[in-house]
Amino acid sequence: MSIFESYKAPQGVLEIGGLPLPRLAERAGQTPFFVYDRSKLGERVALLRQMLAPELRIHYSIKANPMPALVQHMASLVDGFDVASAGEMRMALDAGMPARHVSMAGPGKSSQDLRGAVGAGVTVTLESAHQLEAVERIGRELGVRPRVGLRINPDFQPRSSGMRMGGGPRQFGVDVEQAPALLKVIAERDLDFVGFHVFWGSQCLDPGTVIAAQRHVAELVMRLADLAGDSLEFVNMGGGFGIPYFDNERPLDIGAVGAAMQEWLTPLRRRLAGTRLILEFGRYLVGEAGLYVCRVLDKKVSRGETFLITDGGLHHQLAASGNFGQVLRRNYPVAIGNRMDSGQTETCHVVGCLCTPLDRLADNVVLPAAEIGDLFVVAQSGAYGRSASPSAFLSHPLPVEILV
Ligand SMILES: *Cc1c(COP(=O)(O)O)cnc(C)c1O
């Protein structure tokens, strides 16, 4: 797989951050573990800054990977954080991100979430009329004038996107049709209105879809800008950039996306001089910088097919297993990390240690002939891995996470 070609493997042993995989396993103190690569995180942010218009601010959505050391590192690379809970908010602030560059989204914000955000001076992205009332009340109680944004459910549907999160009826944000009335209420209240947030989708690999969505968002923001007065500090235009997980997927052509931006950026800049234009990303920033590593515990043959049984599984890396039964399950890019240049291959199934047939890490995959004790590696594991997997399922130990 091409992703593994971006790693060094002297003597056939995968290296991350200059350390061979077996040393990393010692450092982790166990398998399974996730390892995240600082240099890849830095390269990804640098690529975005190079290919996109330089004035665009890049925010990181902490939910993609909330490991504290990684969040800390991201704080030095990006311009802001998007958080979805009071817990993520504390992580963002602990990492040193100024509160004015942190915004909290989420269709269901508890009063603890809101008190935390208002108290800290973080921007609360309102997603309903009820949230507006709750935030104002909390602001009064705390003697703080809340900073609020408004999340808009757009009136367009992206053509294709791994996960649509805007257009049509949604639990996210308020419909753009409802925005004028809400903006009027916000203006009358004891609230600082600071920006719009339009999030249209996720895991999109088609540049045409991203370009069309960004153009739509820009048009929508131009329409709304007149209603917002001159207080618009920022416009968060969403993200949506995907990463290739499967053999049939190609990386997003980010050059094409960057080149198409001027068309909407020029009028938007003219209309909204001084407003920060933000793109927010989760998986695109961190997904390709992480590997999941587990150890081959057993190897057996059943009716002519070879099974590698590992100490990992879907309780740590749910998405690679196929999310409890994807319609069509596909393999993530995988490797035997200590046999990267082995000529002798075999076709096998790689499974986890859980007592369910759904616990599969690779089906019918051609790999170097592995032995018990080898290190099995799943790439594209930097986002939605540990924190998005059912780790309590079967009561095995948690995976360790290291950042190198
Ligand atoms: C989940 C989420 C993101 C991140 O999505 P990715 O696909 O990881 O880039 C960004 N913004 C919002 C509002 C989200 O809910």
UniProtKB/TrEMBL annotation:
Gene3D superfamilies: Alanine racemase, Lyase, Ornithine Decarboxylase, Chain A, domain 1. Coiled coil: none annotated. InterPro entries: Ala_racemase/Decarboxylase_C, DCO2ase_PEP1, De-COase2_C, De-COase2_CS, De-COase2_N, Orn/DAP/Arg_de-COase, Orn_de-COase, PLP-binding_barrel. It comes from the Bacteria. Its cofactor is pyridoxal 5'-phosphate. Residues 33-382 form the Orn/DAP/Arg decarboxylase 2 C-terminal domain. CDD domains: PLPDE_III_Btrk_like. Keywords: Pyridoxal phosphate. Belongs to the Orn/Lys/Arg decarboxylase class-II family. This is Pyridoxal-dependent decarboxylase, exosortase A system-associated.
